[in-house]
């Protein structure tokens, strides 16, 4: 697509995230599925808040904002994108009161997502997924 020169200059004033919240969460769940994790707890927001404070993952999480009410951490981007992924059939929730999110990916979907990312981004996703699995196991104790 060709843009007019003044349009290109105008767009240059805005900073676009390297990775949108939707792409991040879609890839994060793919990395979890790749690590044989088929369901996750709703503690995902607290975990990702901690990850955003790690400079290695900053660029992946720059599109996600967090707010706290003093007790719980909240992110409208995470909630919105989880709902979007549920609507397209990549995530499920069998029992709304259960509080677990089911990952309904296939190997083909995971490979498509992996190929859409840079190798460094996929490797970081796998690192975050590994850390989340450890975090989730600690929360279950």
How many strands in all? 5
Question: What's the number of structural domains?
Answer: 1
Question: How many helical elements?
Answer: 7
The largest sheet is: 3 strands, antiparallel
* Strand and helix order: HHEHHEEHEEHH
Task: State the end-to-end CA separation.
Answer: 53 Å
Radius of gyration: 16 Å
Oligomer: single chain
What structural class do helix, strand and pairing data support? mainly alpha
What average pLDDT do the residues reach? Answer: 87
Strand content: 5-15%
Neighbour order of strands in the largest sheet: 1-5-4
Uncertain stretches: none
**Helix amount:** 55-70%
- Choose one word for the global shape: globular
Summarize the model shown.
With 141 residues, the protein is mostly helical.
Structure description:
With 141 residues, this protein is mainly α. The protein has one domain. Helices cover 55% and strands 9% of the residues. The protein contains seven helices and five strands. The protein has helices at 5-11, 21-34, 44-52, 58-61, 76-87, 107-116, 119-140, and strands at 39-41, 67-68, 73-74, 91-92, 100-103. A three-stranded antiparallel beta sheet has the order 1-5-4. A two-stranded antiparallel ribbon has the order 2-3. A hairpin with a 4-residue loop joins strand 2 and strand 3 (73-74). The radius of gyration is 16 Å and the shape is globular.
């Amino acid at each position: 697509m060709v843009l007019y020169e003044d349009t290109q200059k105008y767009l240059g004033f805005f900073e676009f995230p390297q990775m949108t919240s939707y792409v991040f969460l879609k890839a994060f769940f793919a990395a979890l599925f790749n690590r044989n994790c088929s369901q996750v707890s709703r503690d995902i927001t607290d975990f990702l808040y901690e990850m955003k404070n790690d400079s290695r993952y900053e660029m992946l999480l720059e599109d996600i904002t967090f707010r706290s009410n003093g007790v719980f951490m909240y992110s409208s981007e995470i909630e919105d994108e989880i709902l979007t992924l549920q609507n397209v059939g990549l995530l499920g929730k069998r029992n709304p009161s259960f509080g677990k999110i089911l990952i309904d990916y296939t190997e083909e979907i995971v490979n498509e997502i992996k190929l859409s990312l840079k190798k460094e981004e996929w490797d970081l996703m796998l690192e975050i997924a590994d850390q989340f699995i450890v975090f989730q196991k600690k929360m279950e104790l």
